[in-house]
Design a protein that fits this description.
This protein is of the alpha/beta class. The protein contains 5 helices and 5 strands. Strands 2-1-3-4-5 form a 5-stranded parallel β-sheet, with helices on both faces.
C-alpha cells in the first residue's frame, strides 16, 4: 500500500507537478489553504507525511507547523517545507519548531523524492 502525502501550497500547479513526479510511489491529497488542510487532519484523516509551502495567505507554514506539533494525534507526522524564499532565519525557525526538512523551490524532483523517502523512514 502506498504512503499518503498531504501537499499544501497556494499554487495548485506545485501540487500537480509533485503528483506527476511521484504518483507511482505515493498517494496524495492536496489543499491550497493551510487551515483547510489542518481541519481535514483534525477530522481524523491520516497521512504519512506533510509537504507544505511556507509562504501562503491566511495561514503561513510556521503557524501550521506549530498547530500540528501541539496536537497529540498529529505531532509525529513528518513535515517538509518547500519555499521559494531563501532565508536562513526562516529555515532555522521552521527546523527549531519541529520541521523535518526544508527544500528550496524550484526543486530537483529526485532530491525531493530522496528527502521524502528519508523522512518516511
Amino acid at each position: 500500500m502506498k504512503k499518503k502525502i498531504l501537499i499544501i501550497d497556494d499554487k495548485p500547479a506545485i501540487g500537480q507537478l509533485i503528483t506527476l513526479y511521484l504518483s507511482t510511489d505515493y498517494d496524495f491529497r492536496f489543499f491550497s489553504n493551510a487551515m483547510d488542510a489542518y481541519n481535514w487532519l483534525k477530522e481524523g484523516n491520516s497521512v504519512d507525511l506533510i509537504l507544505s509551502d511556507h509562504t501562503m495567505p491566511a495561514m503561513n507554514g510556521y503557524d501550521l507547523l506549530i498547530m500540528i506539533k501541539q496536537n497529540e494525534f498529529l505531532k509525529n507526522i513528518p513535515v517538509i517545507f518547500l519555499s521559494g524564499e531563501d532565508n536562513s532565519n526562516t529555515r532555522i525557525s521552521l527546523l527549531e519548531a519541529g520541521a523535518d526538512d526544508f527544500i528550496l523551490k524550484p526543486f530537483n524532483p529526485l532530491e525531493l523524492k530522496l528527502r521524502i523517502k528519508k523522512a518516511l523512514k
